[in-house]
């Protein structure tokens, strides 16, 4: 396990004050027991508690400890896999329905921010930037695909137009989206937790589930308590480990790292990203960055399939950032942290039923800020008897990742392959 997943983040330093939720003690009953207090679990909790169900959420650490409190905060469109892989499995019409679900996931996020008055610095605008010249055709195809799906709030920017927006000559054009953006991920997560508890859900932090029973009388056990429920929802994503043997190998934890510089001041920050949009490159191993409201550069990337951490995380991340923005050579790095992304083989999220009483969703493959909330909602809908959208998404088939001693070397080799591909293509 890497240290950086516990390292204090910029988000924790700027978190909305929130209550501590007590650990589970003793045996209790609920309609639904949810394991994991990230976007997936808390989204399900909000829906179910508002519908009058007795909901208990168990979290091994604290709310937002996982990817939901530590991510890049980039609100993305569609699926990490792209549409073709989904269409290859489900057909064009159903793939189109999946895209509509992904679009709805952004709307759901915005609705919740409004409805629960979650203060989380939401901002629109997103640039997908080309790290290599001569690839504009790829961006045009991407735009055409989205146009055909009815998502038209996009523009192609050539190199000159992009250089007006970004203070770097590192990139060679971009696809700009108006319907994607960024926010403070932890404050959104804490806001969801507040909404869930106000609707009647009970959250228990420092309460790792150690046994999950998915029989007709399901239960979840912790070291000091037990929740007997009618339904169980597994929402642990990359942090699940071997808790549920059927799910081990379905997703792979990949570490991604982020740094935040010291505040740069308004002028210096605007000279880097003029309009404050989120930025991500089009490589397989993505660099992503954006400004914070207090004018820091928040720079992420360096995904690793092994859980071995870079020896000097902050300087290595800073070196990647300075390659793009040499003007940040002197900027101090105030925070450096990491978190686990859950990827699937085909980069399409994986969801389904372990039994008639147990649901799971995970594997958003680096693009779960909006999607995880939707998958959580769809599990809640399924518990309540409306499973059409959940069943559609759960029709996607997934290959397992290898287990045992070959796992890490094989995945490290895969990562080297993708780095080489990014460098050469
Ligand atoms: C560094 C980083 C950057 C990212 N950037 C982006 C981005 O910019 N845009 C984007 O769309 N996506 C991004 N992602 C991915 C996104 O954050 C995730 O897809 C999303 O947060 C998943 O939410 P979740 O609720 O499913 O999982 P998580 O937020 O990981 O929550 C799972 C929770 O389960 C808990 N848990 C695990 N085991 C147990 C147990 N036994 N008992 C109780 N609780 C347990 C964990 O402690 C954790 O809190 C990023 C991820 C990382 C790590």
From TrEMBL:
Which GO molecular function terms does the record list? oxidoreductase activity
Q: Which Pfam families match?
A: DAO
Specify the FAD dependent oxidoreductase domain's residue ranges: 31-381
What GO cellular component is one of the record's annotations? Answer: cytoplasm
Q: Can the keyword tRNA-binding be found in this entry's annotation? A: no
**Keyword set, alphabetical order:** Oxidoreductase
Q: What is this protein identified as?
A: FAD-dependent oxidoreductase
């Amino acid at each position: 396990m890497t240290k950086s997943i516990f390292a204090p983040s910029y988000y924790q330093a700027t978190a909305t004050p929130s209550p501590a939720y007590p650990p589970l003690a003793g045996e209790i009953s609920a309609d639904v027991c949810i394991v994991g207090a990230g976007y997936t679990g808390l989204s399900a909790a909000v829906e179910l508690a508002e519908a009058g169900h007795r909901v208990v959420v168990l979290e091994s650490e604290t709310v937002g400890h996982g990817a939901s409190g530590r991510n890049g905060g980039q609100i993305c469109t569609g699926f990490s896999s792209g549409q073709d892989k989904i269409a290859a499995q489900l057909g064009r019409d159903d793939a189109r329905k999946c895209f509509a679900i992904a679009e709805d996931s952004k709307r759901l996020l915005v609705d919740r921010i409004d409805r629960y008055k979650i203060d989380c610095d939401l901002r629109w605008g997103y640039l997908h930037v080309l790290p290599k010249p001569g690839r504009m055709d790829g961006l045009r195809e991407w735009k055409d695909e989205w146009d055909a799906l009815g998502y038209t709030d996009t523009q192609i920017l050539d190199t000159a137009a992009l250089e007006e927006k970004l203070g770097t000559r590192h990139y060679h054009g971009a696809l700009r989206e108006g319907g994607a953006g960024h926010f403070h991920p932890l404050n959104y997560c804490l806001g969801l937790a507040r909404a869930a508890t106000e609707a009647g859900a009970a959250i228990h932090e420092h309460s790792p589930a150690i046994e999950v029973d998915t029989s007709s009388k399901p239960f979840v056990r912790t070291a000091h308590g037990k929740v007997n429920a009618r339904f169980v929802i597994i929402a642990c994503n990359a942090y699940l480990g071997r808790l549920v043997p059927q799910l081990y190998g379905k997703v792979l934890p990949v570490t991604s790292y982020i740094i935040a510089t010291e505040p740069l001041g308004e002028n210096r920050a605007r000279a880097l990203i003029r309009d404050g949009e989120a930025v991500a490159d089009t490589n397989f191993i993505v660099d992503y960055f954006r400004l914070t409201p207090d004018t820091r550069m928040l720079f992420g990337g360096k995904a690793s399939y092994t859980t071995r951490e870079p020896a000097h995380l902050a300087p290595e991340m800073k070196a990647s950032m300075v390659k793009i923005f040499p003007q940040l050579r002197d900027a101090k790095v105030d925070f450096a942290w990491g978190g686990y992304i859950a990827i699937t083989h085909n980069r399409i999220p994986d969801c389904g039923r372990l039994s008639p009483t147990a649901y799971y969703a995970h594997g958003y493959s680096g693009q779960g800020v909006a999607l995880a909330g939707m998958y959580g909602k769809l599990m809640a809908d399924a518990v309540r008897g409306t499973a059409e959208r959940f069943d559609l998404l759960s029709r996607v088939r997934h290959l397992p990742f290898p287990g045992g001693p070959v796992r890490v070397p094989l995945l490290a080799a895969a990562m080297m392959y993708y780095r080489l591909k990014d460098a050469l293509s």
